[in-house]
Amino acid sequence: MSLTGDDLEDLVDEVFEDLDEHAELVDERLEGIPEGETMPGLEDMRLHDAKEFRLGIVFIDINDFTEYTSDNPEKDVLFMLNVFIPKAMELVREMGGAFEKNTGDGILAYFGAEDDDETVAEDVLIFYALIQILLHCGVNPTLERYDVEPISISAAAALGTAYISRIGIHSLNRRTAVSTTANVASKLEDLAGTNQYYVNQGIYEKSDTEDGLGSMLEEVGGLNGYRWGSDFSGWTSPSRYYEFPNIGLDLYKEATS
Predict the structure, then answer these.
(1) pLDDT in tens, 50-79
(2) What positions does the domain Guanylate cyclase occupy (predicted)?
(3) Architecture of the CATH domain 32-256
């Protein structure tokens, strides 16, 4: 497609034509954002609507995906993605979570909406344990049977307040989480290495650190530029973050022995 000066001007004019009207509509629909009681389906939300939730936001990412795609035939990469991603999505659904998107080499999911913070925190850690079992005891053995290179993953999760909004235009839109919580989860995912599973301070504070899976969390360090808490409970700055051990294979062996 060639683009002349007149073409560019016409394109800009078309995009800008109803910008003020569009902004007024967005402002109207974001007036007094309500608290959500259940995670809405995409079809149940109007464009630009938003609801406020307390959520556990989880990123799962396939490690070294660029190298994996370079070192393996395209058909093997496609086979791997079609084995792992749908089963990971199914696990989210079976645990009552909501799936936002497939990022190509990973997924983004939400837990919560209907539960208290303690339940959300424990659910995230249970999901960590189950996704490890799925990977080590299901997906990778399957890949090996088909002579496809196995994978490793990393994960990051954060607990906090988030707005869920339907963002886009009528033909192109999706449900999106907008919050510092989502930013923290994304930042922790960037920091997580091979087979590392990080959580923010919110999940640590609300999990059962005495007898539950929270007792397995080990502090890693501080996340500069972010803080966790409230003006009433006291801010912690920088926010601390923690690692959940890669114990899925051991749990599976113990459960099946």
Answers:
(1) 567 788 999 999 999 999 999 998 899 999
(2) 56-189
(3) 2-Layer Sandwich (3.30)
Exposure on the CB side of residue 234, measured as CA atoms within 13 A: 2
Percent of the chain with pLDDT over 90: 30
Task: Break the chain into its structural domains and give their ranges.
Answer: 32-256
Residue 30 banded pLDDT, cuts 50, 70, 90: very low
Six token digits for residue 219: 């502090």
Q: How far apart are CA 109 and CA 230, in angstroms?
A: 24
Separation CA 10–CA 2 (nearest Å): 14
Task: State pTM to two decimals.
Answer: 0.77
